[in-house]
Specification:
Order of helices and strands: EEHHEHEHEHHEEHHHHHHHHHHHHHHH
Strand content: 5-15%
Number of helices: 21
Structural class: alpha/beta
Largest sheet: 5 strands, parallel
Helix content: 40-55%
Low-confidence stretches: 1-18
Strand order of the largest sheet: 3-2-1-4-5
Bound molecules: flavin-adenine dinucleotide
Shape: globular
């Protein structure tokens, strides 16, 4: 690859195979020099293969910013490796198999070292392709993670239910993070109850850094706009970090400015504040530009170094990375491929057009999708309690929702989307690691966000023209699965509340919910 950003054959050519004793395959979510195999690779004797797969880009109607993000970050990484003396073969191919075959055709019998892929099926695919082309694939443990497969498997063995809390505590003890001997610093393992504050109207949230596209990113933007003009999402506002340097700047900015209040506003939703105190670090983390360890260490250092980061903020943040992020990828690893096909609640509504931007009049859904269209990102509570909840209580087929999440978010990868959508959000696995579905009526949205006052629907009504659709859908969801929820200790109360209502009221609410579902199936509400 030459320094101008044009991608093609290495400027050194491929004739010096004997000089290049190591061959490393770098995937698009492994853009990191600090972990093996690149950590120990001598640039002068290592050839790096990177493959831009058209099949991956074309397989789903990806958000345009997601494609730009991944391709730009890959191309920047390739350029940096070249600048450091690596010989980089950057191939644009139909798929990974084609790229590997092409490479091994020129590097006969080479052993390709690769970090163990996290997405299901890839290791097998790459291995087969390498073998088929006369080479070998050597898989190296994935040093981007904080926990090992073995630790999780030993912990999970024989447990009836897998709950994040106990895995997370074990890992905190193992690392000694936020520990005072054997006890958690501050006396509590979990500060979630304090992390549900609602900001005052005049609360000012810290500004978020923007990384304006450079020439290379702009050229990728032009390519994507031309190749996928009808894909979801706008490119105008692209401002994601695409290099290691920018990722470090994003990390530094977060720990300096947003970490102190990360905890208190973790669950809040504010209409005009897309980020609040969230880190936005899923983007560089999922590309491999940052390791989970350095992110946590940097946050812990900031907490130790001052008195303005309360325990509820640092604990809340470490819980997300050492806890949820690791836990979800183990859930995925141990439950695939069945997790992707799960539909334990037998939901069957097609994905409503609202998820592609069709107008429903529901401000919470409309504004969240608008934000997603603009940036390719929304924060966790919007994912879980606005978009996830709406689909859950409308009884949308979870597999359709999973595909949609996989395509529409810049930080989406199968290993993280599938357990979050199928498990946490849609209960399609019938609660293999959650104790109840995250289902809510308009009451929750009204309490935790400021969407409702400007919405055309009334969050307090369940029936009638102005009634918020979330209310009838919620009760119909309870009613539809009443038998199942009656034996769930966290849902049984809602079933009793529902069954206590007058027969006539219930019939009216169910009729309204059916009308809403029919309208959603037909493209409206
Ligand atoms: P912060 O709130 O700053 O959290 C810090 C970090 O913790 C995140 O960067 C992320 O790496 C990690 N984290 C927090 N919660 C989770 C979780 N439940 N699972 C895994 N990691 C977590 N995360 C993705 O990385 N990609 C996705 O495509 C994605 N899709 C999701 C879909 C649904 C339906 C749900 C409920 C959650 C999804 N998540 C996903 C998890 C979480 O919402 C995002 O990681 C988070 O919103 C990213 O923004 P942030 O970096 O500002 O997070």
């Amino acid at each position: 690859m030459d320094g101008s950003g044009a991608l093609g054959r290495s400027s050194r050519g491929l004739s010096d195979v004997s000089q290049r004793r190591r061959h490393v395959l770098v995937l698009g979510d492994q853009l990191n020099r600090s972990v093996e195999p690149l950590a120990s690779a001598d640039p002068a004797s290592t050839r790096v293969l990177m493959i831009e797969s058209a099949a991956l880009a074309e397989g789903l109607p990806h958000h345009k910013q997601k494609l730009v993000l991944v391709f730009s970050a890959m191309r920047h990484f390739a350029q940096e490796l070249e600048a450091d003396g690596f010989d980089v073969e950057y191939l644009k191919c139909g798929d990974f198999e084609e790229g590997i075959t092409q490479y091994l055709g020129k590097n006969e019998g080479a052993t390709l070292e690769v970090i163990r892929p996290t997405d299901w099926g890839y290791e097998e695919r790459l291995r087969k392709a390498g073998h088929g082309a006369g080479g070998t694939l050597e898989v190296v443990e994935n040093g981007l993670w904080l926990t090992s497969d073995e630790d999780f498997d030993v912990w999970a063995k024989g447990r009836k239910s897998r709950r994040l809390e106990y895995f997370y505590r074990m890992e905190r003890k193992r690392r000694g993070w936020l520990m005072d001997g054997d006890e958690p610093v501050g006396g509590e393992w979990n500060h979630d109850a304090k992390n549900r504050e609602i900001p005052d109207d005049d609360h000012v949230f810290p500004a978020v850094p923007r990384f304006e596209p450079d020439e290379l990113t702009r050229s990728v933007m032009d390519e994507i706009e031309e190749a996928f003009p009808h894909h979801f999402g706008d490119l105008d506002d692209f401002a994601w970090p695409v290099t290691r340097e920018q990722a470090l700047e994003a990390l530094d900015d977060f720990v300096t400015n947003r970490l102190p209040d990360f905890g208190p506003y973790e669950d809040a939703i504010v209409d005009d504040e897309p980020v609040l105190n969230h880190s936005l670090l899923s983007v560089p983390l999922n590309l491999g530009l940052l390791t989970a360890e350095e992110v946590c260490e940097r946050a812990l250092e900031r907490w130790r170094g001052g008195d303005d980061v309360p325990i509820q903020s640092i604990e809340g943040f470490i819980r997300q990375i050492l806890g949820w992020r690791e836990f979800m990828r183990h859930i995925y690893r141990t439950k695939m491929p069945s997790l992707r096909q799960a539909n334990g609640l037998e939901h069957d509504l097609g994905l409503p057009g609202a998820y592609w931007g069709d107008e429903t009049g529901m401000r919470c859904v409309g504004r969240t999708v608008e934000q997603l269209q603009r940036s390719g990102h929304t924060h966790h509570i919007q994912r879980l309690m606005i978009l996830g909840n709406f689909a859950l209580i409308a009884r949308v087929d979870p597999r359709e929702l999973n595909e949609w999440f996989l395509g529409c978010y810049v930080d989406a990868l199968d290993w993280v989307v599938t357990p979050n959508v199928m498990g946490m959000s849609q209960f399609a696995d019938l609660g293999s690691f959650t104790s109840k579905p995250y289902a809510a009526s308009a009451n929750y949205v009204n309490k935790m966000s400021d969407y409702c006052p400007d919405c055309r629907y009334d969050p307090k009504s369940s029936v009638g023209e102005d009634a918020c659709p979330l209310n009838s859908l919620y009760w119909a969801f309870i009613d539809h699965h009443a038998e199942r929820w009656a034996s769930n200790h966290r849902m049984a109360l809602m079933v009793r509340n529902w069954e206590r209502r007058e027969e006539e009221d219930r019939a009216e609410i169910l009729a309204k919910a059916e009308a809403v579902r029919e309208a959603l199936a037909g493209g409206g509400v």
